[in-house]
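Researcher: Please translate sequence to structure tokens.
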Amino acid sequence: MDSLAVTAEAQPSLVELNRKIDLLATQVQFLTEQAQVAERQRQERAELMHDVMPIVNDAFRISVEQLEEVQEYVDLGDLLRFLKRVLRNGPTFEKLLDQLESVMDLVQTVGPLTDHAFEKVVDVLQEAEHKGYFAFARGGLQIADNVVTSFSEDDVKKLGDNVVLILNTVKDMTQPEIMGLVRTIMAQTEAEVARPVKTSVPALLGQMRDPNVRKGLALTMRMLSVVGAQASEK
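Model: Translation complete:
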């Protein structure tokens, strides 16, 4: 009975001991894992320092060389004042950055629209080239060059003095009734020129019997009278 009592009392102690051993093993495993993580981080830092140090050394060397070149133009006091001013205007720089970000967003938004507009302009230019606008413009430039090289400065001054009279004359000549008359005369004259012409005196006298011929001759003589009068005045 005493042996059974001792065994019953020892069994909870063994269970508690096993629980403590398991807990200790878990803690040891955790500490081991933490040590491994710390070791990996240390190795990564060491590798990073090994890779970065040459870059830092080069940057430091370049900075020293650049500062040596401008050391006679830069004062430490000026540099400190500049840094203080930059720090005081931190909010202003932040606003500028916000505006810059807004502009970048606007550019990203408008970018597709501008691309479409550019493509549209290219299409319009290609269509204009196909229709001959650019060739006409080049011809117009050549005409302008010929006009410029053909007139002297005195001619240009006279042209400026008489430009109103010239424009009024052109306006009168380009009236619809005048242009219609000229077009009709040219078309009928082209048709009459193609027909055979009789130049004998009887044929000419025969044409004089035509009322239209007599009217045209009268108008022509009237115009010659006006031209003669103008010549006499000159």
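Researcher: Any highlights?
Model: The mean pLDDT is 78.
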